[in-house]
Design brief:
With 487 residues, the protein is α/β, with parallel strands linked by helices. It has three domains: 46 residues, no CATH class; 92 residues, Peptidase S8 propeptide/proteinase inhibitor I9 (Alpha-Beta Plaits, 2-Layer Sandwich); 295 residues, Rossmann fold, CATH 3.40.50. 28% of the residues lie in helices and 20% in strands. The protein has 14 helices and 17 strands. Strands 1, 2, 3, 4, 9, 10 and 12 form a seven-stranded antiparallel beta sheet that branches. The chain has a seven-stranded parallel beta sheet with strand order 7-8-6-11-13-14-15, sandwiched between helices. The longest helix has 22 residues. The chain is globular and about 60 Å long.
Length: 487
């Protein structure tokens, strides 16, 4: 009898051990290595006690990578947001909420930001006492602040006075329960290659490539507001007379600049040149400060311009600049798109080996690359699955400050051409959503390169005439020549 009890006890222990291993999710082969001897008969474990709770390895999510507007992004945890609490400067420890947030500290090797500046975001409009307490606690100096309607938050630009690293400062800020987000003040560059003064009046080959003469027989973008976030625009240039609806300077002072003037002229020129949408109106946003041959903007200056443009009723926002991925800018772009604003950006001039540049690679934005008079890709263009459509961007005749003209190249001017087409389509159908506009632009483009959409040309060359015809609103037939002449 004792032998039978001993054998039964061994069987029971083996059965319980196997059940426990099964609860841990180990395969049968893993459980089998812990057993020896004859297999025990089945035992009713219900009489012994409750089964061990099932244990599963937590699921992890990879960082979202964008591969085109039609593809489903991978999931990543959403940062938790909190209301700003009154602060007397005494609390300093991280909360359980902030401990699990993903960090906006710049990745290793990223240097495209202002070395000693951080951009800090808080909910609502914090009191001066709260702001002063934050500055003291994190040993930062306040430069400027702005409340943003798009996000319902207030952002601050602060400097780091004591040489601490950007990564350590941002991680310290992210551990503070009063701060919604913190990140570097990223730098962006306008996307223009070398320009030369224009001599004579070379033909605007883009007019034929985009079929603008035919499109202008139907619509010229009358009164559609197009915001140009760029360097300073020469509003006194004959090509831009009467088309600047309003303007803002988010960087403070400075003379008109060739890039901003050229981009605005590509969209709305109406004297010696013919812009894509000559009867549209421009909201001029000076967010880039000239530096040598180019101009540079930052997260903070761009966000201020974007928020202002949306508040002024912009239907299209042209962004002919490029730089690093920027969490704050991405959130504002998503908010602008939800408000019905079409966002169009230059793909970038960093070449075929460059990683995607932003804002073009943002899923809320239509990324535009550049082609030449022979429909060849501009050699310096960025490539990638995010590239949506192509437009002329090589040797484009544009206005420059002082009633002058120049020939310029770059994806900047390709983006401006598509922004103008967007204005034409929106006059035709004012109720069109950003997604509807994207569908029209992409479905009416003429295929270039390999058949179908590709990383070089996107869906192909934009076609203003077919895009206008595809828009709803006015009757599909072209207006009469008399009507066209009265515009």
């Amino acid at each position: 009898m004792r032998t039978q009890k001993t054998i039964f006890g061994k069987w029971l222990c083996l059965a319980l051990g196997a059940a426990a291993l099964g609860g841990l999710g180990l395969p049968d082969s893993a459980a089998a290595q812990y057993s020896s001897g004859p297999r025990a008969p089945s035992v009713n474990l219900g009489s012994v006690g409750p089964r061990a709770p099932e244990f599963r390895t937590p699921r992890t999510y990879s960082t979202q990578s964008y591969s085109g507007p039609e593809s489903a992004p991978k999931l990543k945890p959403k940062p938790k947001t909190r209301s700003v609490q009154p602060d007397d400067g005494k609390s300093s420890g991280p909360s359980q909420q902030t401990a699990q947030r993903s960090s906006n500290a710049p990745p290793a090797g990223e240097r495209r930001f202002v070395a000693n500046e951080v951009v800090i975001e808080v909910d609502g409009r914090p009191s001066a006492q709260t702001v002063d307490a934050l500055a003291r606690r994190h040993r930062l100096n306040r430069v400027e602040s702005q409340s943003f309607e798009l996000s319902g938050t207030t952002m601050f630009r602060w400097t780091i006075p004591d040489g601490r690293s950007m990564q350590s400062v941002i991680r310290g800020l992210e551990a503070d329960r009063n701060i919604r987000s913190a990140q570097p003040n990223y730098r962006y560059q306008l996307q223009q290659a070398a320009s030369v003064p224009a001599r004579g009046d070379p033909a605007q080959y883009a007019l034929a490539k985009l079929r603008l003469v035919e499109a202008h027989g139907i619509t010229q973008g009358d009164r559609i507001l197009v915001a140009v976030i760029d360097s300073g625009i020469d509003a006194a240039h004959p090509e831009l007379a009467g088309v600047i609806a309003d303007s803002i300077d988010t960087v403070g002072g400075g003379e008109p600049h060739a890039h901003g003037t050229g981009i605005a002229g590509t969209i709305v020129a109406h004297a010696r040149l013919m812009g894509v949408a000559p009867r549209a109106k421009v909201l001029a946003v000076r967010a880039f400060d000239p530096s040598g041959a180019g101009a540079e903007g930052t997260t903070f200056s761009i966000l201020k311009g974007l928020d202002w443009a949306v508040s002024k009723g912009a239907r299209v926002i042209n962004m002919s600049f490029a730089g690093p991925q920027d969490p704050a800018l991405s959130r504002s772009l998503a908010a602008a798109r939800k408000k019905g604003v079409a966002l169009i950006a230059a793909a970038g001039n960093a070449g075929s080996k460059s990683p995607p540049l932003y804002p073009a690679a943002d899923p809320n934005v239509i990324a535009v690359t550049a082609t030449d008079a022979d429909d060849k890709l501009f050699g310096a263009s960025n490539r990638g699955n995010h590239v949506a459509v192509s437009a002329p961007g090589v040797d484009i005749l544009v206005p420059s400050p002082g009633a002058a003209y120049q020939v310029s190249s770059g994806t900047s001017f390709a983006a401006a051409h598509v922004s103008g087409i967007a204005a034409l389509v929106l006059e035709r159908d004012p109720g069109l959503t950003p997604d509807g506009l994207r569908r029209i632009l992409l479905s009416t483009a003429r295929d270039l390169g390999p058949k179908g959409r590709d990383k070089d040309f996107g869906v192909g060359l934009a076609d203003a005439y077919q895009a206008v015809l595809s828009a709803e609103g006015r009757p599909k037939e072209a207006i009469s020549s008399n009507d066209a002449g009265s515009r």
